[in-house]
Amino acid sequence: MNDSFMQSYIPMSSIRNKLAVSIGKLAAMSSSALGKGTGEQIFGRIVDIADPNALKNLALNKRVIVISSTNGKTTTTRLIAQAFQKEHSNVLTNALGANQRAGLIAALASSKQGDNNEETFAILEVDERSLPGLFDEIQPELLIFGNLSRDQLDRFGEVSSISKSWQKMLEGYKGKVIANGNDPHIVFSLSNLESQLVTYVDTKSSWHDDANTCPKCGELLSWDKQSHFKCLSCNFSTPDDLAANSNQLIEEVTNSLKIPGKWNINNALLALWACRSFGIPDGTIFTSFGEVKEVSGRNAIFNLEGNKTVQLFLAKNPAGWNETLTHISKGSPRNTIFAFNCNIADGKDPSWLYDVDFESTPLKNIIVFGERELDMRLRLEIAGKKVTPTISITDAIAQCEKNSHTNIVASYTQFLKLSRTLPQLNKEAQSK
To answer: How far apart are CA 160 and CA 78, in angstroms?
Structure first.
């Protein structure tokens, strides 16, 4: 755990809470020393137990900006925070993606004041299912809603349940919203808000498989080539007042990014409009975007022994896998590694693999490992792909040719492990 987090916690008044903070710091230090993570989670949990009002109290007198979606929220949060840090001295964020209650407490409590006379901005990624339960405590003045798609259905149910809970959460809300105007579930969740509060962004996102039916009446939606939707039964549709993203603006956003993928262009467009709403100049925004080369291991490139390079991608659900496959298929890499688990955080049911379009990808030599390697291998063989099973990341990399580049696509818990393992392999290769 870094020193600024340890030394700058905003003290609570009671002896009990101060003791809890001390214990939390000790637990956080132990967690970090044992390589179990950065310590924010265990710190936040202890503080929350000691003071049930901690989250609400810590959010007071801060300008809270919340980013929530199924895919892309960590990257969007990082892009926004990077731009705000160029314009403001006091910016808090949960940059590592700890987006539940404990992570928010840790982020809000960890502040190194740059200017005591300047207001503090808290730019927070919040889990889309947890947001309704945290909303009243954090009191956000701006919401950024990216997308809603199927994720861990065995735990959380269908997407419509989230959009309905968001709609109820927003009753009486008077803050501002930046939202993906091409996602029917997002648009439905905002349908009762005053129109002047919402800026809809035209992302032209291409994943529609989780939005085939109208969230308002249940009939089939019609989609055009611009990814605009309309229900022919009740006229529920893409909002008419989409924020104008000219070809020139999209080109500027695309050219400013160092992180790959069409999905990150969509994330950046949402981040752009969020930053604009606080008066940050486009030039500052584009410069800050270019400084983000990876986000908590996402899209990171590692140089390994044998002059091999690997790039790590996170894919958690059908939408994420299909977008990632489309991207990595363009480069025709010699090798592709899929690392696949089905732990609780991944979703225990892997049947959604059959909603991923492996058939259309031109990838040929695919190496697979993970706790559910057999499920992935079976799916790929059904899709007609050549598959080489292995037992670990080191064995998988050993299968790759020297002087070659490999893309690694990992499920969530595999991604967390690889985010720790690959930097170590990179370090070992550099020391030889």
So the answer is: 27
What is the chain's alpha carbon radius of gyration, rounded to the nearest angstrom? 22
Phi, psi of 232 (to 5 degrees): -75, -10
Given 3.90.190.20, 3.40.50.720, 3.40.50.1820, 3.30.565.10, which CATH number is that of 301-431? Answer: 3.90.190.20
Tally of CA atoms within 13 A in the half-sphere of 33 that contains its CB: 6
258-286 per-position pLDDT tens digit: 999 999 999 999 999 999 999 999 999 99
- Determine the pLDDT at residue 210: 87
DSSP state letters, 3-51: HHHHH-B---SSHHHHHHHHHHHHHHHHHHHTTS--SHHHHHHHHHHH-
**CA–CA distance from 11 to each of 8, 14, 47, 57 (Å)?**
9, 9, 11, 11
Please tell me the pTM assigned to this model: 0.91
How confident is the model at residue 193, as a pLDDT?
96
Q: Classify domain 53-290 at the CATH superfamily level.
A: Mur-like, catalytic domain (3.40.1190.10)
Please tell me the distance from the alpha carbon of residue 118 to that of residue 116, in angstroms, as a whole number: 6
Q: Please give the torsion angle defined by the CA atoms of residues 340, 346, 351 and 356, in that order, rounded to the nearest 10 degrees.
A: -70
| CA–CA gap between residue 256 and residue 267 (Å, rounded) | 13
Q: What is the longest distance spanned by two Cα atoms in the chain?
A: 66
Q: In this structure, are residues 55 and 137 in contact, taking their beta carbons and an 8 Å threshold?
A: yes
Is 23 a residue whose pLDDT tops 80? Answer: no
DSSP 214-240: -TTT-PBEEE-TTS-EEETTT--BS-S
